[in-house]
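Is this the right way to post structure tokens for a design question? Let me know if I should format differently. Anyway, here goes:
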């Protein structure tokens, strides 16, 4: 079948099977009253991956989770690692300020819940694609990792497009393109956190931005929680919950978080990861309020900070992983996925890294201390920028 016909059929498949985003950016009120579904951008066919590398990555994810949980509990390590970054990057400094407030007052709930997405890219050589191809970690997303529910639907879509392209339907496609239980797994985790909180009348709050494209994934997750776990999830716009807003958040004397008269067991952030999400001081006050409450944070501000590129760089230094992983085998396996990363702060080592980038700009990428994507710089270089990291550029040949 002609690829253009496959593409058209794939678009209709996406629209009729819940692979959806809003057609245009709309406010939460508009989303609730006049949804305008469209399909997201997606690859028409699945990407080939070496089977042994995919199996290896799946096998180390429990160690990745253990690593980032342990790092998030070492506040001294985090504050030391981010000290120079906080001097030049206002957003990181404000997050560290929230962490220090919690340290001064004492943590109200030792339980935190993480939804991590560890991102990888293929590094390969043309002479032996399969045997010399390695998956290298580009980052770990510790806040607002999304599309769990949508991603469950893509294997079936790709089984459909591959069969259309090849003109046959093979049962082997089911084996080669297994369906990951991403959305179900996220719902199970959130439900477990809700249960750990210990109040059947409490709710999960999903904190969202006021103008979102990716709303269907969040509604699918809410339906999964209610239908299969009996847990109510409430969508709350960050702008509405600021102190004095239409859905004001408050702390009871026992540090319980209350929004609209409902006790909040889990605060699940799907916003709050860029400076633009905090347009006023009141937004920072609310982030601090959440962190000081008994509500289980997803993520805690400490776990949020572990996702910075500076912490990722620190974890790549000799002897650091050994502090946070108990097994020497786990250290070796996790470290095998790391890329060389260099700080560009104004130190002799930072100057040396900047010189490398200037001499060979095509071999490096600038990564900011942000999540959300789309902010990397691939050719130019900013010398003396404490808020960015120099990352070895991955070369992919296929």
């Amino acid at each position: 079948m002609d690829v253009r016909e496959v593409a058209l059929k794939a678009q209709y498949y996406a629209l009729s099977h819940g692979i959806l985003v809003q057609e245009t950016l709309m406010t939460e009120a508009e989303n609730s009253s006049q949804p305008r579904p469209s399909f997201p951008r997606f690859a028409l066919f699945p990407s080939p991956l070496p089977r042994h590398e995919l199996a290896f990555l799946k096998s180390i994810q429990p160690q990745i989770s253990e690593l980032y949980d342990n790092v998030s509990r070492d506040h001294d390590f985090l504050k030391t690692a981010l000290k120079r970054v906080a001097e030049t990057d206002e957003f990181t400094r404000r997050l560290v300020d929230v962490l220090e407030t919690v340290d001064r007052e004492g943590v109200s709930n030792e339980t935190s819940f993480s939804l991590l997405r560890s991102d990888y890219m293929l590094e390969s050589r043309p002479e032996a694609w399969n045997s010399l191809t390695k998956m290298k970690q580009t980052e770990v997303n510790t806040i607002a990792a999304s599309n769990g529910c949508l991603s469950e639907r893509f294997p079936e879509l790709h089984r459909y497009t591959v069969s259309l392209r090849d003109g046959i339907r093979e049962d082997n496609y089911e084996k080669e393109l297994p369906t990951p239980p991403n959305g179900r797994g996220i719902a199970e985790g959130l439900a477990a956190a809700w249960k750990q909180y210990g109040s059947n009348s409490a709710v999960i709050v999903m904190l969202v931005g006021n103008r979102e494209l990716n709303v269907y994934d969040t509604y699918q997750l809410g339906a999964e929680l209610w239908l299969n776990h009996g847990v109510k999830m409430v969508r709350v716009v960050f702008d509405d919950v600021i102190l004095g807003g239409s859905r004001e958040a408050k702390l009871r004397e026992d540090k319980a978080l209350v929004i609209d008269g409902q006790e909040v067991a889990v605060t699940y952030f799907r916003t709050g990861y860029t400076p633009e999400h905090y347009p006023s001081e009141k937004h920072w006050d609310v982030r601090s309020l959440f962190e000081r409450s008994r509500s289980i944070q997803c993520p805690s501000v400490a776990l949020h900070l572990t996702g910075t590129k500076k912490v990722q760089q620190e974890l790549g230094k000799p002897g650091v992983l050994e502090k946070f992983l108990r097994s020497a085998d786990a250290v070796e396996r996790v470290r095998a996925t790391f890329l060389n990363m260099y700080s560009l702060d104004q130190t002799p080592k930072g100057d040396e890294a900047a010189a490398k980038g200037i001499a060979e700009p095509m071999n490096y990428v600038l990564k900011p201390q942000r999540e959300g994507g789309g902010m990397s710089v691939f050719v130019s270089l900013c010398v003396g920028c404490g808020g960015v990291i120099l990352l070895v550029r991955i070369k992919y040949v296929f």
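Format looks fine. Someone answered above. Worth noting: Residues 51-72 form the longest helix (22 residues). The CA atoms of residues 91 and 275 lie 6 Å apart.
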